[in-house]
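tool=predict chain=A
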Amino acid sequence: MKILVTGSKGIIGQKLIIELENRGHQVFGVDLLHHSGEIGYIQKMSHEKWTYSRCDIGEYRQIERVVLEAGPFDLVYNCAAEFGRWNGEDYYEQMWKSNLIGLKNIIRLQEKHKFKLIHFSSSEVYGDYLDIMKESVLEKHVIYQMNDYAISKRANEMQIKNSQIMYNTETVIVRLFNTYGPGEYYHPYRSVNCKFCYHALHKLPIEVFKGHYRSSTYVDDCVRTVANISENFIPGRIYNIGSNDYHDIETLAKIIWDYTSASHELITFKESEVLTTKDKRVNIELSIKELNHKTTISLEEGVKKTIDWMKDYYRL
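tool=predict ok
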C-alpha cells in the first residue's frame, strides 16, 4: 500500500512512518521543514530515494503537487496540525490556516483522487462534558468546546462528515488522549507530560493546576493502534485512542519529580486552570475491539523512558 503521512516530523508522524514501513508499506512524508529525502521539483537537488517533501498543507498548490507527483496514494494519515490550546490562542492565524484550510485542501484532493483518509482529531472536542467520553457523545449532546484549538478540531470533524455525505469520501477519525513519550522535543506549547519532564530536568519552576484528571497514552501504544487502521479500515468510524492510566496532574508531577530528584520547591500549586476540561475519562472499548488497542506501557514506566530519552537528547 502507498501511504502519505502529513506532519511526518512530529512525535507521532516519525514513529508512524517507521511502523508502517516495517509492515511493508511504501510511505511518503510531508512537513514544514526541508529535510533529507527531498529531491526538489523544478530543479532536482538530490539523487537519493524520494521519500519526503517540504509542504504546508494550508497551501493547496503544495499539497496538490505532492499528491500528483508522489502519488497516487491509497491512504493518507493527516497528522499535520497546529497543536495545543495556548498555541491556538497565541498563534491563531497559523492554527486556523493549518487545521481548517489544511484539512479542507486534503478533503478536496480526496474527493478527486479517492484515497482513504485517517484524520487526527483530539480529546479536546469533548470540551466540558462531565461523564465518560465515548465516541458517540458528540452526536447525542451539545458540547461546549473550551478553546480555539478544540473548536478547530470539532470543525474538522464536521468538514469530514459533510464530505462523506456529499461525495461518499471514506475517512476514519481518531481522537487522541494526551499522547506523550520519547521524541517529543520541548517547547512551551508541548504536552503537560513533556513540559513537566523538561522543567524537572532543567530545574525550572512549573505551575501545577490541581484537580485535573487525564488519560496519558504512551506514544508507541498510540502509533501501533493507528497503524492497525490501515489493516482494518472501516469508513466513518471514530476512535478514542487513550489508555487505562487515569490520573490527576499532581500524581504525574510527583512521578516526574521523584524520578529526577528535582526540588519540590520548583512546583507552585494553583487552582483549576481557566477554560480547561477538569476530567477526561475516556472509553476505549471500540479501539480495543476493532484495532487491538493495548496499554503496554504504564504511566510510571513511560515517564521514566521519556526522562531517560530527554537526558540523552539534551546531554544532561
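Residues 2-181+217-242+281-295 form a domain with the Rossmann fold fold (CATH 3.40.50.720). The longest helix spans residues 92-113.
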